[in-house]
Amino acid sequence: MVSCCPCFNSDDLHDDYIPLPMSPTSAAANGRALPDQYELLLVSKQSQSPVNLLLLDEGLVVTRRKKNALGQVAASLSISKASSSCIKTFPYLQVLSARSTRSSPEATATRVSIAAVYSKGGTGPAKLFQLEGDVHEVGHDREERERGSCRVEWWCEELMRRAYDGVKPNRRLRVLLNPIGGKGKAKQLWETDISPVLRAAACVVKVEHTGPSSSPSNATNLARTHDFTAYDALVTVSGDGIVHEVLNGLACRPDGLAALRSTPIIPIPAGSGNALQVNLEGPQRANDCVWAALAAIKGTPVALDLCSITQKDKRYYSFLSQAFGLMADLDLGTEHLRWMGDTRFTVGYVQGALTRRTYPVELAVKIAPNGTDKAFLAKSYNDALARPPPPIDDQSGAGDALPELQFGTAEDELPEEARGRVHQDLPERLEEGWHTLKTDVQFVYGGKLPFVAKDVKLFPPASGNDGLIDLAIVGPISRMDALSGMDGAATGQIFHNSNTRYYRCSSYRLTPLTPKGYVSIDGESVPHEPFQVEVHKALARCLALKGSFWGKQISMH
Q: Does residue 227 sit in the same domain as residue 196?
């Protein structure tokens, strides 16, 4: 029978029928009959209606309303007059499983079960689709029926081969679930949306609930004892906060480097902030748990830079952002609005813009080559986006220990170059090397990835694995400029704003010059005191379906 999980509307299957997209390399596209071995005709158990399954270059095609096998009518089909009773192809990337079973040698039918992820139009919310039906063997004796059953078995094996080409099936996944994440809905999302997808793909899953930061079961402690040889990936079901905890737990181990590089992390968005998911799969998938589960099953490793943050005698790690001033207030001063999700950032920004509050700061920055040329940064990003992602260099001979700090800590004396080049403003252009800025700012925001929230693309040209970090800085501005400063935030227009200073650097030190305030690291609160940031290239690993961070060309103004 054709069956779907409760969240899937089977009417969508009827409404989404479109002409069959023939492959230029397929036999049908050249006017020849489709090879019989690549198609199956199922009879649904429930309605006894036929369902055709066809393997094309583009993926698995499901056809209904036809009582004849496609192979019998393919000669009369053409690209311009293709069947109007076919749904769009399920790309093989979205196929989870295919299996055949036969109750006994004497049985005249073979049961076929298929599971896949369905996304209407290729961009709609992903849902689990399951299909089950019987293939009736035509034959006069047992031997002929067994040959038919073997053909069905081969067809399922061929579909699985295509579905998992280059990917290990049945991944071993350790899942860390925050039961209070996402307004308390993380557990429900796991049960209704995420777990069924992983089960359909026959993944081996171990689920553990995380506790508060003071408990032994917090995510940092669980990561400290994580056996990366026993699992293929570590799945977090919550928001960015648990990713931050997991990365710090892995990094603080004696074998921190090996643990980080051997533990791909998959964030399944079930928290109030899901920026890592946005940067991996795009803003349209920001809250798509099923799509993220598919990444856990089929994703390819992506290298992720980490930043060392030093404060006094402490060292911890950041994967996303560091915020001071208004942006830190948005992260930490709007906790009472967390129920609003990402909307709380907009509300907090408007409040801060109206007050015109500024924050005195001393900022020492080691500028990268061409690091303040916005046009150069945008072009470099666009060029990189047009190229296939480079292979990951795991540097197997680098040992287990994390890299040493190259630029010292926040307690060390600044380099002589930084002390010799002091600015009392925010220059638009700075030469390569160390500079010190002493001025008032509305905010200083450091970021490793383009999106800091679903609707806030603050660092459009940022790369997750270039070994550098981007700084967006805004000085004192009028209320009108401040209110309009977030216009187009979702598409990255802040980058082009003339009030935004944009610096790319390898290290920086921020010293607050007020006694009280907020400092936010990956959305988590840290002491309001000097901190130093240094980037470590490709230290961690994530999984993404396309094997790279999501990206979009930056328009050149």
A: yes
CATH number at residue 314: 2.60.200.40
Q: Are strands 233-238 and 172-177 parallel, antiparallel or unpaired?
A: parallel
Q: What are the tokens at 104?
A: 């006994």
Q: Does 240 qualify as catalytic in the annotation?
A: yes
Of 281, 115, 126, the C-alpha closest to 201 is 115
Quickly list DSSP for 260-325: HHT--EEEEE-SS--HHHHHHH-GGGTT-HHHHHHHHHH-EEEEEEEEEEEETTEEEEESSEEEEE
In a domain, 542, yes or no: no
Specify if 554 maps to a domain: no
Q: Which residues on neighbouring strands pair with residue 131, listed in sequence order?
A: 2, 114
My answer on whether 247 and 358 are in the same domain is no
Catalytic: which of 232, 240, 470, 522? 240
Co-location of 220 and 341 in the same domain: no
Measure the CA–CA gap between 319 and 317, rounded to whole angstroms: 7
Residue 341 inside a domain? The answer is yes
Residue that finishes a domain, picked among 102, 128, 163: 163
What is the spatial distance between Cα 266 and Cα 142, in angstroms, rounded to a whole number? 48
Location of structure tokens 């009030």: 499
Is residue 470 helix, strand or coil? strand
Q: How far apart are CA 368 and CA 380, in angstroms?
A: 13
Please count the residues of the chain.
Answer: 557
Do 223 and 96 fall into the same domain? no
What single-letter DSSP state applies at residue 29? G
What is the enclosing helix (H) or strand (E) of 364?
A: strand 359-367
How many separate domains does the chain show?
3
Residue that is last in its domain, among 269, 298, 327: 298
Cα–Cα distance, 353 to 30 (Å, whole number): 63
In this structure, the number of other CB atoms found within 10 A of the CB of residue 385 comes to 17
Quick check: helix, strand or coil at residue 207? Answer: strand
* CA–CA separation, 395 and 393 (whole Å): 5
Q: What is the rounded average pLDDT of the residues 38-58? A: 84
Same domain for 200 and 252, yes or no, is yes
Does one domain contain both 146 and 55? yes
Q: Which helix (H) or strand (E) holds 132?
A: strand 126-136
Give the separation between CA 250 and CA 263, rounded to whole angstroms.
9
pLDDT digits (tens, 9 = 90+) for 316-331: 999 999 999 998 988 7
Give the tens place of pLDDT for each residue, 230-265.
Answer: 999 999 999 999 999 999 999 999 999 999 999 999
φ, ψ of residue 115 to 5 degrees: the values are: -130, 140
Taking residues 213-227, what's their average pLDDT? Answer: 94
> Do the strands 469-474 and 443-447 form a parallel or antiparallel pair, or are they unpaired?
antiparallel
pTM attached to this predicted model = 0.88
Residues 6+ apart with CB under 8 A from 281: 288, 291, 292, 295, 544, 545, 550
Contact in structure between 253 and 224 (CB atoms under 8 Å) = yes
CATH number, position 256: 3.40.50.10330
Which amino acid would we find at residue 311? Q
The burial of 214, by beta-carbon neighbours within 10 Å (0-12 exposed, 13-18 middle, 19 or more buried), is given as: exposed
Parent domain of 97: 2-163
- Determine how many CB atoms are found less than 10 A away from the CB of residue 164: 19
